[in-house]
What we know:
Strand order of the largest sheet of chain B: 2-1-5-3-4
Number of strands of chain B: 5
Largest sheet of chain B: 5 strands, mixed
Oligomer: heterodimer
CATH superfamily of chain A: YVTN repeat-like/Quinoprotein amine dehydrogenase
CATH architecture of chain B: Roll
CATH topology of chain B: Ubiquitin-like (UB roll)
Amino acid sequence: MSGVRLLVGTRKGAFVLNSDGSRRAWSIEGPHFAGWEIYHLKGSPSDPDRIYASQSSSWFGQVVHRSDDGGKSWQTVGNDFSYAGETGTHQWFDGTPHPWEFARVWHFEPSLDDPDTVYAGVEDAAIFRSTDGGVSWTELAGLRGNDTGPRWQPGAGGMAVHTVILDPSHPDRMFVAISAAGVFRSDDAGESWRPMNKGLRSEFMPEAEAEVGHCVHRIAQHPTRPDTLFMQKHWDVMRSDDAGASWYEVSGDLPSDFGFPIDVHAHEPDTVYVVPITSDSVHFPPDGRLRVYRSRSGGGEWEPLAEGLPRANCYTNVLRDAMDVDHLDPCGVYFGTTGGEVYGSADGGDHWSAIVEHLPAVLSVEVQDVA
Amino acid sequence: MIQPEQPHAVRVVLPAQLRTLASVGREVTVPIVGEVTQRSVLDALESLLPTLEGTIRDRATARRRPFVRFFACEEDLSHEPPDTPLPDAVASGREPFIVLGAIAGG
């Protein structure tokens, strides 16, 4: 029977959770890198034993770890994320030009077919690629060098590439999402990039439908329908059916269309999950009830999923990279909270249970299907 | 006949986090040929332990990371220019050069 491995990044270390295909009992390994903030871990789709981990600290900066044995042991690899060429400037909070300054890796996206190739989405917003297992990194400078780059501006949480999607149907096509610039697409393997934000509307900007400046929190794609993208934005849940060329709102009957994560069911391209929180200033679930919302129609109509989740006095949040799905049947759905719980559902979200509680605040959850 | 200069054996004390990262003990001794300064000590330390590159000094600017401090001989040397000679007691190995992280609550 196949199994599932969850890679959990937290404020104070990384944890690896394993279960067999029943997903009833879990082993919990960790903390790895105890005391360190682990922003993100992700495994290679072509070699589940290869895992990349981003360790970040305000004290000691960025460190990258790599495992070649499924998270049992780790080695430190390269942390030189030097921007290519002229550093250039983006907008600072006061509207003045500010040089790009590397802060941390928010997200690793390993190649679909080569375990040594991995992309890193970083703050200040840029994308890097390694083809030697994370030892050395080269910026794909066409993103930061986009005509709109000098107009990008950080939000309160910084200015980061937090989402990287490698299109399985178009090997040269990639999407990134940046807070607070928006979605960008490359059709030439990362050489050049175009903003893809038509249809987005952000009231916090003087020009609400501007080409860039939107605070996109997360985008998700189903591999069998690569031209359809779902987006959780800083207000609004959005959908595109033309590979990001245009977007329309599918918030529908959600109790709040503010949130961070969004993900798609492994086998049903029209089944989408979000976790609404109250507002931009109140980052916990409405009424203190933790509920995942599921749409089975590609957005618009949503149903609350609450069986097994806290029904009262829950004031945690689920961050953008802290939700993922497995590929078993039925599809498993998992998410971690800033309160340190990791919840899982082995039936597509109908029933939930806490896999582990009392971890440090969870920053990321990634799922691996393992033999 | 001119004798080659003997290297200074400079003792460096690392914070717990960096000891774990570099898989070393509390104190590391680095050989320094020539003047003993913050820069020469940290260059030698990073040469000996490459996993520490970027953790004490920012890679892009080579400046001390904001929450890292340098102490020696009961003095805070964090704000000294990187090429200022360190005290003789550090150069001679009688006193260590201490790298530490600033305190923080939470």
